[in-house]
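Take one record.
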Amino acid sequence: MNNLVPVTQPYLPPLEEFIPYLQKIWDSKTVTNGGPFHVQLEAALCEYLGVEYLSLFSNGTLALITALQAMKVTGEVITTPFSFVATTHALHWNGIKPVFADIDPVTMNLDPRKIEAAITPHTTAILPVHVYGNPCAVDEIERIADVYGLRVLYDAAHAFGVRRHGESVLRFGDMSVLSFHGTKIFNTFEGGAIICHDAKTKRHIDHLKNFGFADEVTVVKPGINAKMNELQAAFGLLQLQHIDRIGASRARIAERYERALAGIPGLRLPEAPLHATRNHSYFPVRVGEEFPLTRDELYDAMRAENILARRYFYPLISEFPSYRGLPSAVASNLPVASRVSREVLCLPIYPALDDATQDGIIDIVLRAAATRAELRTPAPALIDA
């Protein structure tokens, strides 16, 4: 293929649809600090997502950092090594020690049994991730948190619009954090949000994200500047008008992958979560030992054809220099995460991915699957006569 094909790209509505929003911003002379589009987007997202309280942020990482501040989390927090590095960076920036626990081999989310085994007298909270938009074992995590008196903050960066038993997955835990980065299903160029469960907590979060200001002359706490501006909010309102069509497009692309790639030995496709909706935020396949090529060989084959598939998440967070010295980061503590990280490959999925391009991606996988298995067999050792 001649053109580069990314693993994902933002949905961009027609420019003429955005112009009226820009005109209103120019006319109002309000570009940030909780302007009218900011207020409208918070209300619209609450309605769409089925939550009561949502605070917009300039990006998801600042939302994570602020959520931990708002919850007054200290000490040790149990989290997953199989995530984007911002999950653990948010702990570091709050002076919190991350404790890595292993993941479930099917869902790739934190394994509740491993969470419980990792609890120490210094543990104060759990930071799970709804990986690829698949809900964590929220009931079991809630039970563990209740027994041990722990807080729960969900990194829901991938979980926009996901429902479990008909209820938003964002309603679980003490708080959840969304990302509206350009790679996400719903984006505001950059952006994010904290979902909480009461008006008092939302006021606290809103103070923290705006330098701690309660009014023009009153600073009630040491805050940060993490506000979403009016351009981002306006783009979000426009995105929300298209969100159902975006979701339908992603579902159709995922279905085409599933039909074409089902049954290939050594290739594990995404499994539908139990009792939950799928938002198809990613299409991760796992390349096992039965597949003729390794994951990295398949990755290289795609790169050679300008298909920018991504080994997401690889390496594990626990393998980066900043964290690999932690006792919980040793590979023997994380055997499932280590294996999954070496197997996973996310195929391109986004609304503008056309059938012809997707067929080319599928063809690369099918050709790799037909490769002679001997290519992976080591040559026999030479024996001196």
Summary: The chain has eleven helices and 16 strands.
